[in-house]
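Researcher: Next entry in the queue.
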Amino acid sequence: MVYKFLELLFPGQCLVCGKRGLEGRDICATCLEKLPRNHPCCPCCAESLPSRQADGSLCGACSAKPPPYQRIIAPWRYEAPLDALIRQLKFHRKLAAGRLLGELLAGEIPSGPGPDLLVPVPLHPRQLRRKGFNHISEITLFLSRASGIPWSPRRLKKIRETRSQHSLSRKERQGNLRGCFHFDNSAGYRHVAVVDDIVTTGATARETALALKRAGVEQVEIWAMARTPEHR
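Model: Structure for this entry, 232 residues:
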């Protein structure tokens, strides 16, 4: 009741255009509608597909060699205005953007049996000290609150510092991350979702999934805000 009363007194402001938010949220109806849907896409890796392939079939790469995860959920494309929201959080530490992104992603998760745990893609400890925070942890925190699924910022760890993925080719990205993640599954989790902000080549999704599988997790999903254009 107190929360609803505060929402009436202090309605949310759209982080995209600055207008009054939708039902107390930090985005308005117009900007919410403008978020670029990632459809059609491969139901496994979420790679965007031509409209003629909107039949739910796997892309060629996933058909030829199934990835180690069950699926990637990436509801939007990494385009305006979603890209601005991610940058607000990642580079300017605007925590309201983290709350909005987490809540938006929670609203896109299909119904049905969900994972036992959410884990954010981690930073190496030295990188975390340099940056001061992990923006993906912020998204995961609010995703957990909105979905009711427990989360842990410590179960999945990055045990080897790597080069920035930004300027690397697809092949270089895969080699750069190989074996750099470790998952503590002492609690015996069987179904885990790894949370990320953007999926580009899928190298991070693949390596985190392999780390969870090595630790005995049976089902691994990747939940991300967005998919970039094709990088095969």
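Model: The first strand starts at residue 71 and ends at 73.
Researcher: Noted, moving on.
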